[in-house]
Amino acid sequence: MSTPHPPRPPYPPSGADPGESDEFLAGPLRAGSDAEASRSTALLMARHWPSAQEYAVVCLAASGPLAHMVTATAFHQVLGRLALGEPADSLRPRLLVAVRDTVVNWSGTDRITAVLPGLGKPAGGRGMRAAKTLIPENRVLSERAFHGLSRLEQALLWHTEVEAEPLDVPAGLLGVDIDSATAALDQAREKFREGLARAHRDLAPSKECRYYNRLLDVPIRRGGALLPDVQEHLSGCAYCRHAAEQLGHSEAALGVLLAEAVLGWGARRYLDSRPGRRPDPARARGGSRRSGGRRRGGGPGLLARASASGGRRRAVGDGSGQPARFPGEGPARRAAGTAWSSRTLLTGVGVASAGLLATVLAVGVWPDGDDGTGPVATTSTAPGASSSPPGATTAPGAAGLPAAGRTGPLRNAATGLCLDVEGTPEAGASVVLAVCSTVATQQWTYAADGLLRSAAGTGLCLDSHADAGVVLLGSCAGAGSARGDDVRYDLTPRGELPPRWDRTLALAAGGDQAGADVVVKVRDGSAGERWTAGTPTASPGSLSIAGTAGPSARPA
What we know:
Blueprint: H1 22-31, H2 34-60, H3 65-83, H4 91-107, H5 110-115, H6 125-130, H7 140-147, H8 151-162, H9 168-174, H10 178-202, H11 207-211, H12 213-222, E1 224-225, H13 228-236, H14 238-252, H15 254-262, H16 267-273, H17 281-286, H18 331-338, H19 342-347, E2 359-360, E3 407-408, E4 410-412, E5 418-421, E6 431-434, E7 444-446, E8 452-454, E9 460-463, E10 472-475, E11 505-509, E12 518-522, E13 531-533
Parallel strand pairs: 1-2
Antiparallel strand pairs: 3-7, 4-13, 5-6, 7-8, 9-10, 11-12
């Protein structure tokens, strides 16, 4: 009996036969068949090399052999993870991030920069290494929302919105039919926006910001006016001002938003290099494609794109070559939308002019006497709906996150076992799960800089990158070197610990028995990836957690 395959798209991507999705081509890499693996590698490179190469040129601010070296290294890293079992969906953005991180790491290593002087350009490697952060502050919520999507949803959004490619391209890369891809793309756009609103609530620096969550999301979605007290809050709160700008861009300029959130450095230059975004008179006249027909940066009617019921309205062209407009959009409504343009929100100028928007927020969007921390009010999510990733479960007591600077055990939510060091606490020692106790090897400190320090030895931290997928005890001295992210982790509101060298992974239990290794695996929202501030107990099955307030975690 033959093995069933996914439906084949009518227009497969170049470089392969119909039905050969990226995941299909990754199979031989995992099987270890040299001949087939070589063929698969060639086909995957044919599909994704040009884009990765062009972004390498952007990151280095120069073309030539060095850009080829960076691109080849990025492919080696990503394809190596595929061979270890990582899914092959959404390869393009992962390859681009690998390109960026390779340039950053190389430019911070003296031995490499000595032989590759091209890494020293202020607009390239040297500038990237000196940057405080590669993802701008006003894109942090979008970064979190994007990584909260499934890989299939990430791929569909990236290829249609950032690469500006027709839907049949990502459908072919994913091995799905066009109808399924169309439905999944609409769902991905909606889930991304919901993720933005949820990230604004979860990472809010104050109760007041959480209170304004609904009062930002709903009116911006509907094209309505913000209430005066919301406008006043925005004028003095950069966090909520950035959130409002990202919510406004989530439909009007989604491609720009995603590129800046995922890549950060050189995002606009990479967008300009995309063939689908180059001037096309035919597309300008017709405004036919969802991404290509829009003006970058928001354009007229940034907020005037949804009906009062929350339905999606598409821009239409009139054949005159003028910017596309929405049905029924007059000069007053366009002027209202312009008040919420990207520049206005980024600089904080003209916040009060939001009152010029055409419609007034209905009284019904006010919270029913709560503090705004309930479910996000959107037109597609009913109150009380779960905001957890698919397949996630909630363990009893899982709300007790480790507090920054506080030393104590780290308990795995799925097994009830704690993080421990096997044998003598020294660099290279194995990290395992054990029955929770008060021994020094189970005492860990999550620092504000992302380090997970062991109390059992001076200068020892949890290292997620020293071995292939297995977590070991390593030296904290690496935190200031090119390998600094190997011992740094983000702490999410759900208690996940994704390593900063690859936020698509997470620290997880490698088994359900005492003595099992602790590993880094593809992040899927399961209970085995969640960690809480544990209390000593003789029973591995006990989930008695000391409730502590979590730190303000950087989004993963």
